[in-house]
Structure formats: structure tokens, C-alpha cells
Design brief:
The complex is a heterodimer. Chain A is α/β, with parallel strands linked by helices. Helices cover 61% and strands 6% of the residues of chain A. Chain A folds into 3 domains: 118 residues, Glutathione S-transferase Yfyf (Class Pi), Chain A, domain 2 (Up-down Bundle); 167 residues, Rossmann fold (3-Layer(aba) Sandwich), CATH 3.40.50.11810; 76 residues, no CATH class. Chain A has 21 helices and 8 strands. In chain A, the strands form 2 sheets. A 4-stranded parallel beta sheet of chain A has the order 2-1-3-4, with helices on both faces. In chain A, strands 6-5-7-8 form a 4-stranded parallel beta sheet, with helices on both faces. Classes of the chains: A alpha/beta, B mainly alpha.
């Protein structure tokens, strides 16, 4: 598969890990990315806050170039993606605006192709089965809150993708990588975007609520596909903790970083060590747990029986002491008939090995112990003739 | 803000504004039946002087000036939750966007947001791309907040998250022409 590639400004700057990991993702999944030549900034919020035509013309210069390449465009940044989809939608449905846009950029542009987000590419074009088959280091034990934010899924008539209120594509991808995804309330809440800069009094609260809700829902990390969300949740996490006098210490990852790592890359290859909230250790802890499966099996066996080795030994010791101090009472627990029980008392009083065997059997399974007791008694009666 | 509003007969020049705004926003405010779902779900609603529902009500009452002077329109982060949830299909986010642009045209602007947008677009016009560090510095200088986020600058550099110098695209002349043509066609910058 070949796609025109629009990295956008963030992926060269604050979102450098996103840029590195998107390229690795493409290599691992055999997607050829052809970077749009001499691309320009999409104009982001500042353009659509200022002038409608400008907010369409800035993306259109890039999209017209991609159209000449005859390819759909991959725009990993959620803000660029949303502006591109807006431009495509307007150019397709508003012929008057289309001619204004073409005049402004001095190029022909009819929006024949479409822009994809990373989530759309991975679920609609590559497919989660295909991703699953590439995984060599599953993210076993990871508890992830998939955070979609606003611009990837809203408005639906522009993005035409996933669900606005309860999207699942990122959860599907993370599950294919072996992680557990948690249900939580703030999947599509807004991180405040540039309000963290222009109105920190408002934006700070929005960041706090997302971190708090992820933590309270039991997430051990947050996964995103937007560089602005990453900036707010990762870079501003320490500041938010300070402001609200709390500690989250919750690592935030790009979905593409985790994909590359699950497919065998080191965290350093995709830049995970550059995060503000330490994010490599959590991944290392996951792989240590996964590297000792024997231990895991033993842990599971213990929990199935509902007790550990230590507790079992204590129980055996107690039963042994019971046989020594009050053999008649213990024998009565195994054999109902008085005569036979009396013979068992004689046996355990003279044979320590048989006593130990019965005690350890009683500790786990009383029926087995009863059968063994009957066998001992039967053998003794036979011996006596 | 004082929320008392005076209802007066509508003036002719006013009559023209609302249809123009609705046309640009691509939505019809008469559809709104004031259920308030937009405001209940707005993540920034608690910080607004008029909630999104109240902004629409102001417009329904033809109180365009009040709506344009509201702080709310500059607190809206365009997250589109309101538009996604409106049971009547009113595109509130697009309306907020249109109100911001109209306020800018009429000089009724929120200084910090306007300063940020000016710095941002200046960067796009001159370099073709955004240079994050330069943008932050320019914004801080323009708003007199010299030490804002100063604790983040150095860690960003040591993590390789920001370059020392701005990158520029080759088509810088093209960018200037796009800005010039948009202005010719009546655009705001």
C-alpha cells in the first residue's frame, strides 16, 4: 500500500516520538509513505479562528499536491487530520468555496482522494488480524486507557469513522497488541488543546479530569493518537499534579510507539525515553513478567487451590499434631465403623509414615484420605488373619 | 459579566448580520429548542459567562452584540461535543467558530487568544511551518508573560523535542501569495 504522507509541524518537534514510530509502523506493516513535497502547516485552530477561506486554503495546498500524486494521505496528527477532512468535505459539497480555494492556492483541487488517521489506516486498511500476526512481544499485563480526544472522531459527518461517543478502534488495536483496555468515562473528552496555554485556569482542569478518571478506572497507562493530547497529558502532567496537589505518575504512549514495540522494536528506537513522565520502565516491567511464565503458572495454580505452599504445610502440621494428641478423634473423621477406627488408631500410633501420608491427604482431599485409611485397615485385618 | 439584557426593536443593519453568520456557520439557530444538552456536555462550560445554550438564545433574541462580546466564544476549544450531541442538528461548534471570526472583524477580541493566533499565523506566513519554541516565545512577549512555561523549554530541548532554529519550507513565496489572495477575497488576517 502506498500513501502520501503529511507529518505536520508537531511530528518534527514536540511529537518527535510520534514521527519516529509512525515511520516504523509503516515499515513493519509494509505501507509505503511518500512524504508530500515541501508541505506547509495546516493552519490548525488559529486559521479557523481567523478566516474560513484561509483555514481551507492552507490544507488545500498540501492536499492538491497529494491529489497530483494520486494517493490518499496519512495525517497522524489529529488536528491536521481534522482540518484536512474539513477541507475535503467543503470542497466536495460547496462549489463556490471550491473555486475560491483553488484561486487562493493557484492549483486545481477537487478532493478526489481522502485523508486517513493512523486509527483508520490500522483498522480499515491494514486490519487488526494482520497487526496481530506481526506481534512478537505482546503487551501482556498492560492496562491501557485508550484516549481518543475530540478531533479523531468528531464531527462524524467530517471524519466518517468510528463512533463519536464510544469509539473502539484504538481499543481493537491495543487488544491485538496483547494489552487489556479498560472501560472509562473520558475516552472522547477534550484535553483543552491550546487552552492549556491561553487559559491555563480552564485547560488545567480539563487535563486533570482526564488523568484522574483514567487512574480511578484502573488504567496503568494512557494511549493516544494526537500530539496535542500527548503534550497536555505528558508534558503538563507534573504541572497538573502540582496544581491539584496529587500524584498520577501515569505514562502516556502514542499507539504507534506501542505497535512498533510489540512488533519487536526497542522503546529507544521509537523515542519512548524522551517522554516527560518516565515511560520505559513500565514496558520493561511488563516484559519481565512475561519472560517468566513458569512463575506465572505456579502463581495461578496457587490461586486455583485458594492457598499457597506455606499455608498448606501449616495445615499438614496441624493435622499431624492432631493424630498424635487425639488419634481416636482423627480416626473417627476418616472411618465411621468403631471397630475399624480402633484399628486405624493402632496403625497411626505405630507407623509414622502412614500417619504423615494420611495427614497430607486430609489437608487437600478428605475423601482420598478416607480411602487410604480404609486400605490400611483392610491390609491390617488381612495380616492379622 | 452583568447578564441583564435590554430587548429593543431590531435595527436594519442588525437584521443582515444574523443570516450572514448562520450562512457561514452552515446552521440554523431557529432549530434550537433550548434543551441544554450542549451545555451539560461542554467540558469548558463551567468557565463560561454564557453557556453554549445561552449563546444560541442570545442569537435567537437577535442580541448579536452580546453574543460577540461573550468571553465564552474564546473559551470554547472547538471539541465539537455540542454539535455531536445536539438532538436538533444545530452545529454549535461551527457557530462558535463563526462568532470568533466575526468578533475579530469587529475588533471585539480576547487579547491573549488573538495574540496567540496572530503569532501562529505569522509563523505560517513567513516560514510555512510552525516552530514551536519560537511561537511560544513570541506569544509570551506579545502578552507580557515572559516566564510562562519557562520550566518546559529546556527539558524540551534536551529531549530533542524542539530545534534550535526554525525550519522553513521552500515555497515561502507561495505562502505569502496564499495569504495575500485570501485577503483580496475579503479574508481576515
Amino acid at each position: 500500500m502506498k500513501l502520501a504522507y503529511y507529518p505536520g509541524c508537531s511530528l518534527d518537534g514536540s511529537g518527535v516520538e510520534y514521527g519516529l514510530s509512525v515511520k516504523r509502523m509503516a515499515e513493519l506493516l509494509n505501507v509505503e509513505l511518500c512524504e508530500i513535497d515541501d508541505w506547509n502547516c495546516c493552519g490548525a485552530t488559529s486559521a479557523h479562528n481567523t478566516d474560513k477561506l484561509l483555514s481551507l486554503a492552507l490544507p488545500a495546498r498540501n492536499l492538491a499536491k497529494a491529489e497530483k500524486m494520486g494517493m490518499d494521505t496519512l495525517a497522524p496528527c489529529a488536528a491536521c487530520y481534522n482540518r484536512f477532512r474539513h477541507t475535503e468535505h467543503t470542497v466536495r459539497h460547496d462549489s463556490e468555496m471550491r473555486s475560491k480555494v483553488e484561486k487562493a492556492i493557484d492549483m486545481e483541487y477537487q478532493a478526489a482522494n481522502e485523508t486517513l488517521s493512523v486509527l483508520d489506516l490500522l483498522t480499515s486498511k491494514v486490519g487488526t488480524d494482520n497487526i496481530r500476526s506481526q506481534v512478537v512481544k505482546p503487551l501482556q499485563g498492560m492496562k491501557a486507557a485508550c484516549y481518543y480526544g475530540c478531533l479523531l472522531v468528531r464531527p462524524k459527518e467530517i471524519t466518517g469513522f468510528d463512533d463519536e461517543e464510544n469509539p473502539h478502534t484504538m481499543d481493537d488495536i491495543m487488544q491485538a497488541l496483547g494489552a487489556e483496555t479498560i472501560d472509562w468515562s473520558h475516552k472522547t473528552e477534550c484535553c483543552g488543546a491550546s487552552l492549556a496555554t491561553s487559559r491555563p485556569d480552564v485547560g488545567g482542569k480539563m487535563i486533570y479530569e482526564i488523568l484522574r478518571n483514567a487512574s480511578e478506572a484502573g488504567a496503568e497507562c494512557i494511549v493516544t493518537a494526537c500530539p496535542l493530547c500527548m503534550m497536555n497529558l505528558d508534558m503538563r502532567q507534573a504541572g497538573t499534579e502540582k496544581k491539584f496537589n496529587t500524584k498520577f505518575n501515569i505514562p502516556v504512549y502514542y499507539v504507534t510507539e506501542l505497535l512498533a514495540i510489540a512488533c519487536g522494536d526497542s522503546p529507544q528506537t521509537v523515542g519512548t525515553h524522551r517522554h516527560f513522565v518516565e515511560a520505559v520502565k513500565y514496558l520493561e516491567n511488563l516484559s519481565t513478567a512475561a519472560a517468566s511464565p513458569a512463575e506465572t503458572v505456579r502463581e495461578e495454580a496457587k490461586t486455583e487451590n485458594g492457598e499457597s505452599d506455606e499455608a498448606l504445610q501449616k495445615k499438614i502440621n496441624a493435622l499431624t499434631i492432631g493424630f498424635q494428641k487425639n488419634p481416636a478423634k482423627m480416626a473417627a473423621r476418616l472411618i465411621a465403623e468403631e471397630e475399624k477406627a480402633a484399628i486405624l488408631v493402632e496403625i497411626v500410633s505405630s507407623d509414622e509414615k502412614k500417619l504423615a501420608k494420611l495427614a497430607s491427604l486430609m489437608a487437600t482431599d478428605n475423601d482420598k484420605a478416607a480411602k487410604a485409611a480404609q486400605a490400611y485397615v483392610a491390609a491390617e485385618i488381612k495380616k492379622r488373619g | 459579566m452583568d447578564k441583564t439584557v435590554t430587548l429593543l426593536p431590531v435595527k436594519d443593519d442588525h437584521k443582515a448580520v444574523l443570516p450572514r453568520l448562520q450562512n457561514e456557520a452552515g446552521t440554523d439557530i431557529k432549530l434550537c429548542y433550548q434543551c441544554g444538552k450542549c451545555s451539560a456536555g461542554c467540558p469548558a462550560g463551567s468557565a463560561m459567562d454564557y453557556t453554549p445554550r445561552q449563546i444560541i438564545r442570545l442569537l435567537q433574541l437577535d442580541l448579536v452584540d452580546e453574543a460577540l462580546s461573550a468571553e465564552s466564544i474564546w473559551i470554547c476549544a472547538t471539541c465539537e461535543t455540542c454539535s455531536a450531541r445536539c438532538p436538533r442538528g444545530v452545529d454549535i461548534a461551527s457557530l462558535m467558530d463563526t462568532l470568533r471570526r466575526e468578533a475579530l472583524k469587529q475588533g471585539k477580541l480576547e487579547k491573549k487568544v488573538a495574540a496567540f493566533n496572530r503569532a501562529f499565523l505569522g509563523c505560517v506566513k513567513n516560514y510555512g511551518k510552525i516552530y514551536e519554541l519560537g511561537l511560544m516565545l513570541q506569544y509570551n512577549i506579545a502578552t507580557g508573560q515572559f516566564l510562562k512555561d519557562a520550566d518546559l523549554g529546556l527539558p524540551m530541548m534536551t529531549r530533542g523535542k524542539v530545534g534550535i532554529l526554525p525550519e522553513t519550507i521552500k515555497g515561502r513565496d507561495e505562502m505569502k501569495q496564499i495569504f495575500a489572495r485570501v485577503k483580496q477575497m475579503g479574508g481576515e488576517q
